[in-house]
Amino acid sequence: MVLVKGKSTLLSIVTGHFEPDCGKILIHNKDMSVNSKEARSLLGYCPQHNLLFDNLTVYEHLVLFSSLKENFNSNEIDEMLEFINLTDKKHVLAKNLSGGMKRKLSVAIAFIGDSKVIVLDEPCMDPQSRHLTWNLLKKFKKDKKCTIFMTTHFMDEAEYLGDRIAIMSK
Fold first, then answer.
1. Could you give the 3-state DSSP secondary structure of residue 150?
2. Tell me, what CATH number does 72's domain have?
3. Which of 21, 78, 124, 130 is the most buried (most CB within 10 A)?
4. pLDDT by residue (tens digit) across 78-134?
5. Could you give the CA distance from residue 165 to residue 40 in angstroms, rounded to a whole number?
6. Are 74 and 60 in contact (CB under 8 A)?
7. Cα dihedral angle (47, 168, 33, 50), rounded to 10 degrees?
8. How many Å apart are CA 110 and CA 126, to the nearest integer?
9. How many domains does the chain contain in total?
């Protein structure tokens, strides 16, 4: 059991930014507080707000975040570009992408580098790209062998995307 004030604190504990008050976080049997580097290499994270570098291209973002996991694979990057329908935007700077494309890139970054556990903090914030992101996550869920831990304020989204649902309330 972890005593938390809210979802942001819970996500910070799951991703290893905060220590739990009690218990432990295991990522594929790697204790986050003991083997944090190894556990984090198996973890993909998409924050609530896009954290993209304006002067990096779509491709450069995927290379950068893949290399942070010491798991660079140019084939995986090309497959990811195709998977998220951004192959034609490969050399476009992040600052020139639409909001929906930026969100797709942020979600893809979480999955790059053979992530085994994906933490998504409200990945479908933009109502216009919400259903596109839903379809993308359904596709990831079907094709990738990983666990997806996602927060949302929308019950319909949780029901559509989730296999198991937990509700946090005051």
1. strand
2. 3.40.50.300
3. 124
4. 999 998 889 999 999 999 999 889 989 999 999 998 888 999 988 876 676 777 788
5. 24
6. no
7. 0
8. 18
9. 1
The Cα 93–Cα 103 span in angstroms is 14
Which of 38, 32, 35, 37 is closest to 18 using CA atoms? 32
Distance of CA 144 to the CA centre of its chain: 13
Residue 34 lies in a domain: no
The whole-angstrom separation of Cα 150 and Cα 60 is: 26
CB 83 within 8 A of CB 9: no
> Which residues have a Cβ under 8 Å from the Cβ of 166 and sit 6 or more positions away?
none
Q: Which two tokens stand for residue 80?
A: 């990811």
Residue 4 has pLDDT above 50, yes or no: no
CA angle 32, 37, 39 (to 5 degrees): 45
| Residue pLDDT, tens place only, 25-77 | 998 889 988 888 888 888 999 998 889 999 999 999 999 998 888 766 778 89
